[in-house]
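Input record, target 12 of the design panel.
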């Protein structure tokens, strides 16, 4: 499997694809503007991401092998947080074109735009369930920032997290039975999981600047961003919280990691 992340050195930002151990890195985009929110297509051939090359957030989809990229969303305001549906035929994105940040569905070529949340709050960071039927997302509609679930086509919204503090950046486990997220409490970000059935939350890390978690395809490890010696690095923790490992890159500031899919031969 492979991972993707953003490497910043000075004013230069690179979108990087690497082996799951952090080695063998390849730059697929190098620009003098921030890059955010890389998201793998289900077949591992494309990455959606947000770039600020046009002085505001714009969503692109880029093919890893041809390097060809497609402009998916460049509406007035912010275009952000792309997430692929499991069939690869659509994306969830977040737009502020109609006021507050809301979730929309769109095809990878930018056609067929359709709004799916109507809260008037800030709804962001959508991610599809493995079967494509639901979206997890982050919202402040209840006052604090919490994680919610709704049908992927739109519909009734259910709040999932209630623990003290704020909760961000949800990602489904590969089996769909739990989700991982960043839990912010008492000035620290920690990585936590929550089971859908029992609703039990488990904190997996000590806490600090720990963000953007995602599961490995087999569900046994969680990749996330953290800091060490004043710069961003990657780290992993086992899904039971017992094994922790930091990955130190050669240089630069590493952010926005995402674990790619298992590539079928």
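The sequence produced for target 12 reads:
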């Amino acid at each position: 499997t492979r991972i993707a992340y953003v490497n910043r050195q000075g004013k230069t930002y690179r979108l990087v694809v690497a082996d799951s151990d952090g080695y063998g890195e390849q730059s697929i985009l190098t620009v003098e503007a921030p890059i955010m929110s890389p998201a793998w297509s289900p077949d591992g051939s494309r990455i959606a991401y947000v770039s600020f090359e046009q002085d505001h957030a714009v969503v692109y989809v880029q093919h890893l092998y041809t390097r060809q990229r497609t402009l998916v969303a460049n509406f007035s305001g912010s275009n952000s947080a792309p997430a692929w549906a499991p069939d690869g035929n659509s994306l969830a994105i977040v737009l502020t074109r109609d006021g507050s940040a809301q979730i929309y569905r769109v095809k990878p070529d930018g056609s067929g735009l359709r709004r799916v949340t109507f809260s008037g709050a800030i709804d962001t960071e959508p991610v599809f369930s493995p079967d494509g039927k639901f979206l997890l997302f982050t919202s402040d509609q209840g006052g604090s920032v919490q994680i919610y679930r709704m049908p992927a086509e739109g519909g009734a919204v259910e709040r999932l997290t209630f623990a003290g503090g704020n909760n961000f950046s949800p990602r489904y486990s590969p089996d769909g039975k739990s989700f991982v997220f960043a839990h912010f409490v008492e000035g620290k970000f920690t990585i936590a999981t929550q089971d859908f059935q029992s609703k039990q939350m488990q904190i997996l890390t000590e806490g600090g600047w720990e963000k953007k978690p995602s599961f490995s395809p087999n569900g046994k490890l969680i990749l996330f961003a953290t800091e060490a010696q004043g710069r961003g690095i990657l780290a992993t923790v086992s899904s039971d919280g017992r094994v922790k490992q930091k990955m130190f890159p050669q240089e630069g500031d590493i952010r926005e990691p995402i674990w790619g899919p298992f590539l079928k031969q």
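The chain is about 0% helix and 55% strand.
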